Amino acid sequence: MNADMPCVDPASLLRGWIADAAAAGINEPSAMCLATVGPGSRPSARFVLLRGLDERGLRFYTSYFSRKGREIGENPAVAALFAWPPLERQARVEGSARALSEAESDAYFSARPRGHQLAAWASEQSEPLDSRITLEERFAHFDARFEGQPVPRPHSWGGYLIVPERFEFWQARPNRLHDRLEYVREDGVWRAGRLQP
Q1: Who's near 143: CB < 8 A, 6+ residues apart?
Q2: Alpha-carbon gap, residue 72 to 135, rounded angstroms
Q3: Residue 137 contacts by C-beta under 8 Å, 6 or more apart in sequence?
Q4: pLDDT tens-digit readout, 116-135
Q5: pLDDT digits (tens, 9 = 90+) for 93-106
Q6: CA–CA distance, 65 with 152 (Å, rounded to integer)
Q7: Nearest of 117, 103, 125 to residue 151 by alpha carbon
Q8: pLDDT, tens digit, for every residue of 152-162?
Q9: Nearest to residue 60, comparing CAs of 78, 43, 75?
């Protein structure tokens, strides 16, 4: 480890940077651009919200049949990027994604607002849609179907855990001599180092 590197768990450092972004009033400080690998090794990326971060990794939730869900099913290699321009910071995570347990997905789903639960039933995420009216009609259908009762989690919807293998933290500095701190997991231990800007 370099002498001037902070000796911390990179997940803890990422939590701290997200907390700093929240304290600075940045909208959606836990938004991350998730990149997956599609057919023909073509990358695709979209923003999702980080919904949990601990020593196991990063959690997010989606439809298993969405484009990202299908791509993860074919190739679990993923990357995530957090960016907080007002703080001149970004963080990158590389690793592999796997489905969370049914119990963990159920627990998260039950805590969601009812409208969000119904939307998970109404939307066949990433599939073609003939009109917005169709989507709203599907929402109304499931609202009526589950009236007066808890909304169960659709089997097509749940969580993923990104098991990180690499973190990189970027902080802007004067004269473009930016700080780039890298953490790579080797044999279960995080190795820290610096990268040139």
Answers
A1: 118
A2: 26
A3: none
A4: 999 999 999 888 889 999 99
A5: 999 999 999 999 99
A6: 18
A7: 117
A8: 999 999 999 99
A9: 78
Residue-wise pLDDT tens digits, 3-16: 566 557 999 999 99
Q: Where are the beta strands (DSSP E) in 118-188?
A: 157-171, 179-186
Which pair of tokens denotes residue 34?
A: 């998730």
Q: Report how far residue 53's alpha carbon sits from residue 161's, in angstroms, rounded to the nearest whole number.
A: 9
Average pLDDT over residues 19-38: 98
The half-sphere exposure of 72 on its side-chain side, counting CA atoms within 13 A, is 26
pTM of the model: 0.90
The answer to whether 180 and 195 are in contact (CB under 8 A) is: yes
How many CB atoms sit inside 10 A of residue 165's CB? 15
Neighbours of 43 (CB within 10 A): 10
- One-letter identity of residue 176: R
pLDDT of residue 1: 44
> Which CA distances in Å does 46 have to 26, 37, 111, 145, 155?
19, 12, 24, 31, 23
Q: What is the pLDDT of residue 8?
A: 74
